[in-house]
Amino acid sequence: MYCVRIKKEGKNVRRNIPLLFQSSRALFEPFSVLFSLRTTEERHCQRATQTEESTLIMPKGPFASSVGVGRAEPEWAKLNKVDGICGRDVMHQSGEKTEAPLKLEDEITSGECESLIVPEDGGFDLLIVGAGLSGSVIAERCSKELNMTSLILDKRDHIGGNCYDFVSDEGIRCSKYGAHLFHTNFERVWEYVQNFSEWIPFDHRVKGRVEDENKELKLVPIPPTRETVNALFSANVNTDEEMQKWYDEQRVVPKSEDGQPRNGEEAALSRVGPLLYEAVFKHYTKKQWDKYPEELDASVLLRLPCRTTTDDRYFSDPWQALPRRGYTRIFENMLLGDENIQIRLNCDFFELKKSNALPKHKLVVFTGQIDAYYASLGMPKLEYRSLEFENTYVEEPEDGYYQEAMVVNYPSSSVPFTRIVEYKHTPNQPSEQPLPRGTLIAKEYSTDVGEPYYPVPNPENRALYEKYAALAEKEKGVCFVGRLASYKYFNMDQAILNALEMYDNMKENGTLEPKRKPEDFGPGDGPK
Ligand SMILES: Cc1cc2nc3c(=O)[nH]c(=O)nc-3n(C[C@H](O)[C@H](O)[C@H](O)COP(=O)(O)OP(=O)(O)OC[C@H]3O[C@@H](n4cnc5c(N)ncnc54)[C@H](O)[C@@H]3O)c2cc1C
N or C, which end of the chain is more exposed by having fewer CB within 10 Å? Predict the structure, then answer.
């Protein structure tokens, strides 16, 4: 039996529940040695680092590779250019020892602007709506290099936007808005983020609990690799060539005249064929979007990864890492203690505007929803998918962990949630005290109500966004930035680069304008 506390909609309940999937325990035999032989203390190990503090306590977790915690096997781990702890956490260097988000001054969280010290010459240079990555990067750059002043407003009670993480009451670092894994292809972004945090290499690897051809649940790598098809379909694929052949035999060419897929189903079948489509992608897509692939744009499934190797890393970017003291620390280092930057939380821009309570400013940088900005025009709203998190603290998990990886996906239609995240696996857990015996898990349910997370990619929404974008282009004194204002799923690194490039324009010609279109940054991961 697991003993759990479930937190859903603010309620805190304690109950005993039977061990889930007990019958499939045998599947985890390969991990059983790790499960059974280690005590809680032994789950902490010392690792060499590149910084002056040459050791780091981290949990081993049951998913360590031969390289270490959170790392892929050597052949793939070596592709990650982050090979040890790097970067700097100025706050930590100057003596701040806590790892949870810092308690912010009352004035910052007060929800009012009266206590602000407004610069004399025409007010703040920038009034930034949103304390997420987009707003914070612009405030930080404009302050450090151009000595410009900013007021950052956010309607939430914390900085960090969707990247916000914190240490739970039980002592586990977790994300408020869903697990965030940093990975980037952009060297400029990697150089930039190292100014605000120490970083730990992390090769994100995901497992899926997937039904095989006999309807038995198997734990397999996601995205599918050779191991996945061998385990699910009794294939005997051992080389890249054999895997390529397997795909070639499986793939279904779309029937259209030009051979191009007309919808998501045709796209998926043309990429991976019917077996993987049915087992891994079809019902998962339905759960994520509440639409079957055939009802979605081909583009949504056209990028399904087709691995021919044994590479089981989720991302293939050259830099993959986690911030050692969490994402919130990045924002603390960027914003707090900078005399040019003032922050007010619990402040809704529209309410302050309506009541004429906004302080004087020269330019608005708006990182909220573009359709909310134009709500008074009565145009239709842009559609979003959201997530509901069911957080459960499992007090006495067998062997200290609930599942075999940080993220386990559930593609089948027989369970309503899409995936379970177990934060304890990440190597950036607080090091001030030993990890608790229990573990925190978050079940993710996809929904169309709640926080706006994923733009819904279909022609209607695209056309509607174009109308909003045309209005935004003509708007004087307001610059629209970031994932909500661009109606575009930006990965963190894309959001950072977009903001950095806008800042470049500010430096070069005094205008805060994008250098390229949101879509030019690449597609972004979207729902995972
Ligand atoms: C569930 C989920 C998981 C993700 N996982 C990853 C991942 O693993 N890797 C990765 O690279 N990226 C991931 N991302 C993307 C990442 O969160 C974004 O790239 C990043 O948050 C973009 O920053 P932003 O500043 O543009 O937007 P946000 O972080 O959303 O910030 C916008 C801010 O504006 C505020 N705001 C809006 N309207 C108003 C208003 N009227 N008044 C005041 N404030 C307002 C909001 O409260 C919010 O804090 C994920 C996103 C989601 C939704």
Answer: N
> Does residue 482 line the site of ligand 1, with CB under 6 A?
yes
pLDDT at 342: 98
C-beta of 348 in contact with ligand 1 (< 6 A)? yes
Task: Enumerate the β-bridge partners of residue 6.
Answer: 13, 392
State how far the alpha carbon of 309 is from the alpha carbons of 237, 239, 276, in Å. Answer: 10, 7, 16
- 507 band by pLDDT with thresholds 50, 70 and 90: very high
Of the ranges 104-108, 272-276, 362-366, 395-399, which one carries the lowest mean pLDDT score? 395-399
| 372 CA: nearest ligand 1 atom | 41
Residue for token pair 């950036």: 428
Alpha-carbon torsion 307, 309, 311, 316, what sign? negative
Ligand 1 within 6 A of CB of 349 = yes
- Residue whose tokens read 């690792």: 47
Integer distance in angstroms from the first to the last C-alpha of the chain? Answer: 30
CATH for the stretch 123-164+327-383+454-520 = 3.40.50.720
| Contact call for residues 82 and 197 (beta carbons, < 8 A) | no
The boundaries of every CATH 3.40.50.720 domain in the chain are 123-164+327-383+454-520
Average pLDDT on 61-80 reads: 89
Enter the pTM of the model: 0.89
Residue 367 beta carbon below 6 angstroms from any ligand 1 atom:
yes
CA–CA separation, 468 and 470 (whole Å): 5
